[in-house]
Amino acid sequence: MKSLIVFEKTGTGYSAYSPDIDGCVATGSTKDEVEKNMKEAIEFHLEGLKLERQEIPRPNSYSDYLEVSA
């Protein structure tokens, strides 16, 4: 399963979240660390949903860049 992940630079490193998976977030000191942590967070989150017999959210978000006058 592929999901859109948004990565952001913070004052102390990086953070990540998925608009398709409510409440699933991760942080890290480096880009590699936040990517690893987010992958683990998603796997853990989805396993919890399965154990609770809840529906697994299906990806429905997308991203693109829009050019605007600034």
Which keywords apply here?
single chain; 70 residues; alpha+beta; Double Stranded RNA Binding Domain; 3-stranded antiparallel β-sheet; flat
Give a verbal description of the structure.
With 70 residues, this protein is an alpha+beta fold. The chain has a domain at 6-51: Double Stranded RNA Binding Domain, CATH 3.30.160. Helices cover 30% and strands 17% of the residues. It has one helix at 31-51, and strands at 6-9, 14-17, 25-28. A three-stranded antiparallel β-sheet has the order 1-2-3, covered by helices on one side. The longest helix is centred in the middle third of the chain and has 21 residues, at 31-51. It is flat, with a radius of gyration of 14 Å. The mean pLDDT is 95.
Oligomer: single chain
Q: Main β-sheet, in a few words?
A: 3 strands, antiparallel
Total strands: 3
CATH class of the domain at 6-51: Alpha Beta
Class derived from helix and strand content: alpha+beta
The Cα radius of gyration reads 14 Å
- Strand order within the widest sheet? 1-2-3
CATH architecture of the domain at 6-51: 2-Layer Sandwich
Average pLDDT level? 95
Order of helices and strands: EEEH
Low-pLDDT windows of residues: none
Distance between the termini: 37 Å
Give a topology summary:
Elements: E1 6-9, E2 14-17, E3 25-28, H1 31-51
Antiparallel strand pairs: 1-2, 2-3
Compact summary:
It is built from 1 helix and 3 strands, in the order E-E-E-H.
